[in-house]
Amino acid sequence: MASFAKAAFTLATVLAVGWALSAHAQEYNEYDPSAVTPGSIPNFPFRDCNTTNGAYRLAPVWRPSGSNTYCFKIQVSQDALSCTGACCSADLHKIEFNVSSSCLVAGASVVATVNGVRTRVGATLDKAPAGPVGSAVLRLTQLGLDTTTAQDAEVCLTLKTNRGGQGCTTLEQLCSSPGFPAGTCTAAMFDVACDCCPVSQAGQALPPPPPVIPPVLRPCDVCIAATIVPPANDVRPYRYDSATCAAI
Q: Secretion signal: which residues (predicted)?
């Protein structure tokens, strides 16, 4: 009887763990690492989804906001050039950033907020199971935004090192965007089913142009000096006296 009870307890434990893992996978809608082939999807977002069809994208410029904090605006566009079909009306469930694997440091973290409120599920730095060796993503999930609430929503990331000071603290260190200037971040916006995942980039604002410096006007050089004197034969109209000069 005791052995039966022990076996039943073991089975219940296994089922509970299996259910928890399944629920975790469904909650985050992520790959089961054992079910994908590493390196099978070489390009970000390292998933089999439509990277050009969707209503959500990052505004082209991010802004710094205090110590190690950087903010992005979400833009919503439902025109024919941005999306078609169900992707035009799908909710925004998750954002993933293409990041450097060097930022995957034990104890380092990222705090994410949407319009000043922390995300329901904490931001996570993770390897990309189907991506090439060294690929990694920063995941913000369960955002619960739609085409109305996502418009101009501000997503802010605060980068924190571990206790030893290790980890990424700038977007130049964090974001991986091959072919773009340092500090450019590439992100994919996912619907719940992860079928629509439009990819966009956000970079640093361009520095203001230098001030226009007016040209320096150099003084005129004296080339000729002349003295006017009355002619020897003082006959009009060659008479130059003070009265004549004053009358001119």
A: 1-25
Q: Please tell me the distance from the alpha carbon of residue 198 to that of residue 187, in angstroms, as a whole number.
A: 8
Structural domain boundaries in the chain: 58-201
Nearest to 126 by CA among 103, 94, 156: 103
Cβ(69)–Cβ(157) below 8 Å: yes
pLDDT band (50, 70, 90) for residue 106: very high
- Distance set, CA 2 to CA 7, 10, 22, 233 (Å): 9, 12, 30, 147
Alpha-carbon separation of residue 208 from 32, 65, 151, 204 (angstroms): 47, 19, 27, 12
Locate 215 and state its tokens. 């040209």
Q: pTM score, two decimals?
A: 0.73
Contact predicate 95/140, CB 8 Å: yes
